[in-house]
Amino acid sequence: MASNSGIVPEDGESSKNAALERCLNVFRDASNDSEQLAALLLVTKAVKAGEINSKTRRRIFDAVGFTFPNRLLTSKEAPEGCPQHTFQALGLTLLACFCTDPDLARHAQILNKVPIFNDVISSPELADASCHAMVDDTYQCLRAILATPKGPRELVNRGTLQALCAAYVNHCYGSEQALQLLVGLLTAVEAKCWQRATLDLLGVLNLLSAEFQKAEDVTKFKLCEVLPRFVPHLLPPSAECLPALYRGLSSILTSKLSPAQRDPALKLAACLSQACGSKWVPPGSAGSKFFALLANLACVEVRLTLEELDLAELGKKQELMAACYVVMELAIAECTREKGSLLHDAQKVQLAGRKKPEDPFVFASVRILAAWLAEETSSLKQEICDLLPFLIQYARMQFEEERKSRTGAQRESEQAGQGSAQEPIWRGDALRFLLPGLSHLTAEDRPREILISEGAPILLCQYFLHRWEKFVLSTETVSASKSVENSLQTSCEIFLNFVVTAPDLISREECFAALMDTLLKSLPSLLPQREHLTLTANVTTLGLMMAKRLFAYPGLQGTPEAEGFFVAAIRFLADAYVPQPGPDGEVMVLSVNPAYKAAWPAIRELWFLSMQAFASCVPLFLWLPQDVLRSGWLQELLASLGRVTPKSVDMEIARAYQGILVELARASQPCLEMIQQHQGLELASLHGMAALEQCLSEQ
């Protein structure tokens, strides 16, 4: 049942709310400060801030407001027989209650109390147990402010950062709460914190480092997680904290620990390595052994994580992986340093000298790099260019090793009298992962030049032919077969980039002739398989674009394979658009073939590019117009244009058809006559094909 004040008691809260309401009524009816104070004391006894809901807290605020708490905080006297800070404690208790409401926590009346909060938490005079509740209330106010959007900046601007540092360094009551707030501020506004209070934060870092070194229990591991927040971006080798941090990390990493205990230590080591290189590790035998151990731990962690190749798990370990790579980078720098290196020659050889290219760690690292290149090639352009020769060399090494193992397996099978060898397991297919990135890079001038100079086109052609053989045989699982198909499609994209941007390369490198032969032979059998329509579009487009450049190649001079390819290409192009009844059912419209619709978003641009390429091939291959006539495409196209409403044939489609019709009319008298017999001039005018209209008018 609702009380007179409008508060609706919850189950188990009726008596408490009734008592609170009586106290608030007394406060409102008080005639002087003494009566108000007495009422407020009753309020604080009736309920604690953490035990009431937001509605009740707001009710208290509406009754009390800020005026009276403000007077309490600034009062210099205490009631007779009471502790010195009684008034301030009462005021802070009320503000702590108010601050649990986010709207009140960012109120100007709360923010202007921050200097008072700072004094309370950093005052050694409040160490007495009678003042602990007052300090706790103050920390509750500060935590509430920190949680607001602008809270971190407000606290830094109003001096809380320095007060928190003083509270921790001077071991004031609540110093652990001060440390938590410092971590929160550094997380939210790190740069601003270091800009405002560098010396204060370094003081905290020095104390934390000493505690880290001395601790022999779980505290050591907790500090290991906190310390990276207090390490600045740059630390001088003479920094006071470094010896203690080194000794603390050494005691952790030389012990047998669980990953949960070891991983924070690796992150802290990486943080120090970024701040001051290897200078935090002392020279000498002990430091050398420790650094070699640290580098080895990082290498092992990366290898184990990347070999799992579980993307979900890898996502959880991003910070750890980044830390390990920082340590490995520093280890590489030490390995290449001739003078003053932390590592002895034997340690250098152990870390880097005998790393084999086929090592799974190298493959895993290349795979991660390839995933990044697939998404981003605009950043670190020079670094990417510098790395491309190694990536191509590495991919070539893997491909050749696989080819050798396949040949060996086939030879052993034949000697054993078996028909065909079982396909050996391909441990590392770096090219498969590099293909998406190469698709981006071959569209850019500088990376493309490097790839060509490193022989990448030849390697890619060999790889395509190998993968095509696996695709045709279809001996793999559905998922593996789909992976092969995706690799073939991406390879086609790369070759198209070469055809468009480096056409001379196509006629210069013999490997492209072998690729052309495969495309000519493969498209006729691929075309009927509509589940592979996207691959069909890629093969058709690439084949037509290459045929433009290789028109003098003997394999394209009217051979059965060439004619079979072009007949299949004609069918692919012809079937894309068909007349269908419009929405009203009264007129026919030109629409995408239902059989093409699912794949159309992926192949639309390829179809238009194929149409342009086919039109360019018509004058190059004298037998091609006759194939067009025999296929019936010309008749179908003209009949379709005559049946559909012109509004359904947009400008881009009209231009594509016009390109084909103009070239056929110019190259072949029978085609010209066929176009004229089907009212080609009228159709050209009807569909806005000006070039075709002019061509037919001139005949």
TrEMBL record:
<dbReference type="GO" id="GO:0031175">
    <property type="term" value="P:neuron projection development"/>
</dbReference>
<dbReference type="GO" id="GO:0048168">
    <property type="term" value="P:regulation of neuronal synaptic plasticity"/>
</dbReference>
<dbReference type="InterPro" id="IPR008709">
    <property type="entry name" value="Neurochondrin"/>
</dbReference>
<dbReference type="GO" id="GO:0030425">
    <property type="term" value="C:dendrite"/>
</dbReference>
<protein>
    <recommendedName>
        <fullName>Neurochondrin</fullName>
    </recommendedName>
</protein>
<dbReference type="Pfam" id="PF05536">
    <property type="entry name" value="Neurochondrin"/>
</dbReference>
<comment type="similarity">
    <text>Belongs to the neurochondrin family.</text>
</comment>
